[in-house]
Amino acid sequence: MKNFQQILNSAKERGPKTIAVAVAQDLEVLLAVSQAKDMGIADAILVGDAEQIAEIAKAINVDLNQYQIIDIKDIHEASRKAVSLVSEGKAHMVMKGLVDTSVVLKAVLDPEIGLRAGNALSHTAVFEVPGYDRFIFVTDAAMNIAPDLKTKKQIIENAAQVAHALDIELPKVAVVCAKEKVDPKMPPTVDAKQLEEMNQQGEIAGCIVGGPFGLDNAVSEEAAVHKGIEHPVAGKADILLVPNIEAGNVLYKSMVFFSNSKNAGVIVGAKAPIVLTSRADSDETKLNSIALAVLMAVKAGK
């Protein structure tokens, strides 16, 4: 898949799946959930303050008779309930509503009702960027602050799962650094070369990993040729693995605000997809994220 219209169409064909929305009294979230319902992509169980949900739904003409509503006013308990619906098999994914990410993740990681699967949790953003013939995946811009080599390996594996859900069978992963040569004074470049070697040895499967790359020669074939870089990933990267959360956050927000791109975001590594977007994200981004999570749930056989 190369654009979000294809994702939406495929989610409609392969869905619907059921979302458990944690603290659902959020205008953009309810809009996105309603659009997903109308398109046949997803159903939803709305967990949160029923009065506030009803008030918002009335303002945006959303018919709540189509949804199960579980009235829990406490945001911590609402988050726990949404997660437990997934762990009990009553829903296929969790979506964050009007609540801090940390509250939802605490419930996800709860040993009694949580969805921890043993792998590191990481955020993968998917961008449809004008002028590119493919999606650009950015990871990790939201979860892991300064991942070590082992965690970077797991972040790559998580991002590859997202790409596989979009029928990208062998995604190309560029380990992005400040320079494209290994420099012992710059540990991310050392990690990059090790990750490439781990991929060559079969320790990281389902993708092609290369690094270190600068951002330019990761996404631009012209830049790669200009710098004399020959590698299957050079200039053709699908997935950009950033060295730390600062780099990821700046890259993510630059792509959102400096380009006319569309995007979606999910947390991967749990037993089920977690739809996690910023409160500033539009209902379109939230809808795209729901569709992405539906395809991931289908791919996982949920």
TrEMBL record:
Keywords: Acyltransferase, Transferase
One matching Pfam family: PTA_PTB
Record GO biological process: butyrate metabolic process
Coiled-coil ranges from the UniProt annotation: none
UniProt domain Phosphate acetyl/butaryl transferase: residue ranges: 76-294
GO molecular function: phosphate butyryltransferase activity
Protein family (similarity comment): Belongs to the phosphate acetyltransferase and butyryltransferase family.
Protein's UniProt name: Phosphate butyryltransferase
Organism: Geosporobacter ferrireducens
Native organism taxonomy: Bacteria, Bacillati, Bacillota, Clostridia, Peptostreptococcales
